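Per your request, structure below.
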């Protein structure tokens, strides 16, 4: 697989940013972002999508943790 060109990278990042913004704006109903998710998947290499998905999960966890909103699960608290 060849590395994406600068134009392809910019298209991928733009699609990712639009999708993430939609998720932030629609925290209660992520189904509203299906078209943007599809655009994100078609604009980015599969490995990048996997990385960006994990990165978003981590950033959201970090945000909650730093704000003091993180609550460990009952299973975690018992161990």
């Amino acid at each position: 697989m060849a590395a994406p060109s600068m134009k392809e990278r910019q298209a991928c990042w733009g699609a990712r940013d639009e999708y993430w913004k939609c998720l932030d704006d629609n925290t209660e109903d992520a189904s509203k972002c299906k078209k943007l998710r599809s655009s994100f998947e078609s604009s980015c290499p599969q490995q990048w999508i996997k990385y960006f998905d994990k990165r978003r999960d981590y950033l959201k966890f970090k945000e909650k943790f730093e704000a003091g909103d993180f609550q460990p699960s009952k299973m975690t608290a018992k161990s």
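Residues 28-52 form one domain.

Regards,
D.
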